Amino acid sequence: MNKKLNFAQQYWKENILLIAKLLFIWSIFTFGFAILGVNLLNNFEFFGVKLGFFLANQGSILFFIFIIFIYIKKSSKLDEKYSISE
């Protein structure tokens, strides 16, 4: 029983660490590029819109969706590692 508990704790520790890493990357992207670097990025255009404005409005949301797909892929590998995949 103790081995199963330790096994589950290891799984959730790795899962939470993965989530923390991905949210950290997303926060760096969102706050770093879209808020702090907006003046620098506004010198460039993306589909006729200033890049800083685009990242602040749609870019950070699109990047978050991209991170969700990364989480799905990495989480599936983690499930296979611990033999709990469907």
Number of distinct beta strands: 2
What composes the largest sheet?
A: 2 strands, antiparallel
User: What form results from the Cα inertia axes?
Assistant: elongated
Question: How helix-rich are the residues, as a percent range?
Answer: over 70%
Distance between the termini: 23 Å
Strand content: under 5%
Low-confidence stretches: none
Output mean pLDDT. 87
Tally of alpha and pi helices: 3
Q: Which structural class fits the helix and strand makeup? A: mainly alpha
What key phrases describe this protein's structure?
86 residues; mainly alpha; 3 helices; 81% helix
Write the layout of secondary structure elements.
Layout lengths: L1 H35 L1 H4 L3 E2 L2 E2 H31 L5
Antiparallel strand pairs: 1-2
Q: Short summary of the structure?
A:
The chain is mainly α and 86 residues long.
